Amino acid sequence: MTERTSLIEAAVATLRTRITSGEWAVGTRIPPEPALTELLGVGRNTVREAVQSLVHSGLLVRRQGSGTYVLADDELAVSMSRHIQGASRRDVLQVRRALEVEAARLAAVRHTPDDDTRLRAFLRARTEAWDAGDMDTMVEADLALHREIARVSRNPVLESMYENLLDAIVENIRTNVEGPGHDDHAHDGLVQAIVDSDPKRAGSEVVRYLAALLREEPEEEWP
Prior knowledge:
Blueprint: H1 2-20, H2 33-40, H3 44-57, E1 60-63, E2 67-70, H4 75-84, H5 89-110, H6 113-132, H7 135-152, H8 156-163, H9 166-178, H10 188-195, H11 199-214
Antiparallel strand pairs: 1-2
Helix pairs in contact: 1-3, 2-3, 5-7, 5-9, 5-10, 5-11, 6-7, 6-10, 7-9, 10-11
C-alpha cells in the first residue's frame, strides 16, 4: 500500500508540475489516459487516481465525452476562491487592510527609483480614468497600483496571497469606487509616503482610506 501511495503521489507531482509550469495551459485538454500511463510509467489505476486528486483540488475538470481539461494553474487560488465565495464587502475590506498595510510599509522601505516611476505612472492612470469617468479603466488602474505595491514589498508570500485574492479584490474595488465613501485622491498620499520612504505614514494612509470605506475610525494600533 505504501509503494502504491508513493506512485500516486509521484504521478500527482508530475502532472501538477506540467500544469503550474504552464506546459499544460489553463483551458487545454490534457493527454488521454493511455498517453498519461506512458508518460508517467505507471498503471492506469494510478493515473486515474492521480487525475482524480487534481480534479478534487480544482486544477483539472472532467467534461463528459470530451476529456479532462486544465481548470486552474494554482491550487492556492482555487482554495482561496472557494473560501471567500459569498464573503461580505466588509470582510474583504478587512482582509485587504491586513495585507495592504504591510505591503505599503515594506514598499516604503524596499522601493527603488524605478519602482517610484511605475507607482507614479499607475497613480496617474488611475486619476486620469477617474477624471474621465471611465470606471472600468479606473478599476483596472486601481488594481494595477495595488498589485505593484505588493510587488514592491518584495515579500513573495504576501504578493502571492494578494494575487490569489484578485477576483475578490477587483470586485471589491468596483463596489467601492461606485459607492459612498470613495475618495478619488485617496491614494495620492499613499504613493507619496512610499516614495518618501516613510513606512509608518504609508501604513497610515492605507488605514485612513479603508477606514472611510468601512465607515469606522482608524485604530491607533494599525499605524
